[in-house]
Amino acid sequence: MYRGLGLAVIALVAQLLVPLSSASAVAVVSIADFSGDWTPDGTSDASLTGHSFALFPLDGITSAQSLVGSDFSATFASYCDPSQAGTPITYFELDDTWSPGGKMGGCNSPETQGHVYAWGSNEDAAYVHQVVLNSGELVLDGDWGLEDSHDSVHYLPLRAHHAVTTFLTKIKDSQIVKKQSHFYREIEITGSGETRLLYRPMNDCSDTAVDDGDGSLGLEVTKVGGSNFVDLYDLTLGIEPGRASGDFRDCGGEVKELEEIPVKVTKTDRHEKDACPVGAEGHLYLEDHTSKRSDVLTLSVPSCQIGLQVKASKARKGDHVAVAIDLNRNGY
């Protein structure tokens, strides 16, 4: 297959052959969703598994073109030069860790039809496009290959994932409403979810941006006084796919944190005293410590006057505050 047509033809075939059992549809292209660190999974060619690659945008055609080998210069121009490919164009650098390794320059343009095409100086070429799996996860599908002596590129299949965190909360906490009173509030929060990370996190307490996520939390707050009780809040909050943001932090295994994760009220009980409408927005903060007596959950929904923080270190007898955050650097 000749260089000038190979990427376009194989990319079209790859779209048509995405198995329905593993992918629901090709995602609507978001340039930002190409960026970050990616790890090929077991459906990729065996020579690529265990490796990774990074994609990030460049500031113009010159930066991308400088990474492209002379054998591919004409092909690069046909897909990435605005005089031939049209606009808009976003230029990318692709860095991979497998042999022969190195940097590749490419773009997303009207001619690439939703893909990022890239070419290197080691006679290597690649293309990737966005696919949403049935699970809702956005992955990159495509191929990578090397040019042979007959000017054909032999492609190897590639499917790659962002790193992922999963979290679980199980909390029952009693807090005195006012000192020297007999009133207290019982807080129950139970839920789970996951977040996708833009880059593979370090374990040095540095922030790693959350790229996407999904999950839900059930929140029930009851005011108790003697034999009387009043349901203040009884609602469900969700993390919406495609709208998640925030940060993840790994501090050398001692503590893992998710910060400022957007949540939205998705269900509410009409009998609750302090009504909180569906659609109200807030943020979630989680801390998972090696010492479970230090776990923390903070939840804020300002429009509903919800500002809760529960700490394992302050839990009363019979209460429990448990937060678990697990990190999968490969994402699959």
Nearest-integer average pLDDT = 87
Instruction: Determine Rg (CA atoms, Å).
Output: 25 Å
H/I helix tally:
4
The CA-CA distance between the termini, in Å, is: 32 Å
Uncertain residue segments: 1-28
Overall strand count: 19
| SSE ordering | HEEEHHHEEEEEEEEEEEEEEEE
Q: What are the key terms here?
A:
332 residues, mainly beta, eight-stranded antiparallel β-barrel, 4 helices, elongated, disordered N terminus
Write up what this structure looks like.
The chain is mostly beta strands and 332 residues long. Helices cover 9% and strands 51% of the residues. It is built from 4 helices and 19 strands. The protein has helices at residues 3-16, 61-65, 73-80, 82-85, and strands at residues 25-26, 36-40, 53-57, 90-96, 102-108, 116-120, 124-132, 138-147, 153-161, 163-176, 183-197, 207-225, 228-239, 247-251, 255-268, 281-289, 296-301, 306-311, 320-328. Strands 10, 11, 12, 13, 14, 15, 16, 17, 18 and 19 form a 10-stranded antiparallel beta sheet that branches. An 8-stranded antiparallel β-barrel has the order 2-3-4-5-6-7-8-9.
Summarize the structure.
The protein has 332 residues and is mostly beta strands. It is 9% helix and 51% strand.
